[in-house]
Fold MFS drug efflux transporter.
Amino acid sequence: MNFQADGYLFKPHEQPIMAGSPASPDHPARRRLAYLLIGLLLAATAGLQNGLLMAALPQLRGLLGLSPQEGGWIQVAYYMTYACMSILLFRVRQHYGLQRFVRLTLLLLLAGNLLQVVFESYLVELLARSASGIAASGLLVLAVFYLMQAFTGQAKLAGLALALGVMQFGTPLAQVWVPFLFAAGGMPAVFALQLALTLLCIGLVIRLPLPPAPTVRVMSWLDWFSFALFASGIALLCAFLVQGRIVWWTTSWLGYLLAGGIALTGTALLIEWRRSKPMLDLRWIGAPQILAFGLTGAVVRLLTSEQTVGAAGLMAGLGVGSRQMVAFYGVVLAATVFGLVLSLVRLDVNDIRRPVVVALLGIAVGAWLDMHSGVDTRPEQLYFSQALIAFSAMYFLGPMMLEGMIRALARGPNYIMSFSAVFGLSQTLGGLAGAALCTAFLTVRTRTHLADITPHLTLTDPNVALHLHGLALSLAPLSNDAAVLQQQAVGTLLQQAATQAMVMAYNDLFALIGLLAAAAFVCTGLLWLDRRRRGINLLADEIQRLESMLLPQK
């Protein structure tokens, strides 16, 4: 590709990798630093789009008077647009140009944030979250481009992992910020922070734009039609996974969501299978290496639900408030940062699966440490185990993304869309499926444990009678009526039994995740050792094909 813009013919090593991607001119050191800082801000802002929502969702529900089901639809509105938007945005960049893509991303981000600041409405919040999902997907791509401008040679590959890693900071960072923001000004303060970050991103991107990028006419009406079917199907599946754990899986209308999601997604995939120039190359996606890549990413993402659903849910069930969890999420954030830094320092494309083995071991150990929790467990007792899991979740993510990108680029630029589908859906649907399965498991096990405990709560048991007497004495200052005190003591006892059943269910979940992670660690570890012994490099062919494209000599 001989690319020329504004009268300047880019040197061979400065040429864009593909249409829709910016050129890589030789920047001075100060400009590289500026690209680095802007890229980090863009990645963090992308992560905070969902992080702030999840951290402030209880307060938002209270502000708008929403039911849990309505709050679930707000989550769905984000995931349904974020999950597969990267596929379409890839075509948009190639067809309409990079600068139009930048303007579209920032305009959607600004529109979503302004709607939240100006209007206080459930419908507006749904629209804003939908726009934020699209914008977050675009911001991640922008962050990758900016960070790649900051590096040279082989280090450009680290820009991919760095952008995705910094985006993951959004969840723990939001959990640290939101309690203070809410105390200072309620939800308007949260919305104001989002808007301020958006305006800062817009100003910096205008001040230091990306280098130009070539375009190519690639979009057709069939692309729009196929994507509409595919995106609609994925949206229904996201709705099924989110709402299922809220209204429970036997609710009849969930079946329509699942059936519609499968039908629409299947129709889109059938169209793609029969196309000569598909957006999604199903033959490549169906290759054993790509299936193993996607499955590995989904499994690890599912297992990290031990933190998002397990530990966080246990603390919420024990009545620990968001302010009391600030230090907890501070530890999680620090471990996440350490995991990203170490994954970049230890990044080795010739041994790309090693981080997965390490991550699975960390999750297994962390889950095992948590399975001894009790009703008196508090956040500080979970610092080490959750730091271990947060580190593990981050340590594997960047190398996994890099592996998929290398495999896709080695086959050609058009395979980036297929990679985006595999990686994005494995992470989004894997995370939602993990949360759904964990929640269902907790519900069933809590009921089972409560059913086992209740028959033993009889007044004929001297220990139970003594405990009830102690509860009645502790409640004596509230009433002089013995019958009322007895009734309140019984209610308190049943509540304690329910809490104990819940804690036992969480311990069961930690044990299950620990067992699954240990089994996955053994399997992946043995395969990794076998490849090391035989000198097999999973990406040897792909790296050889890419060497001239990604690492050209000046």
User: Anything to note?
Assistant: The domain at 1-219 is CATH 1.20.1250.20 (Growth Hormone; Chain: A;). The mean pLDDT is 85.
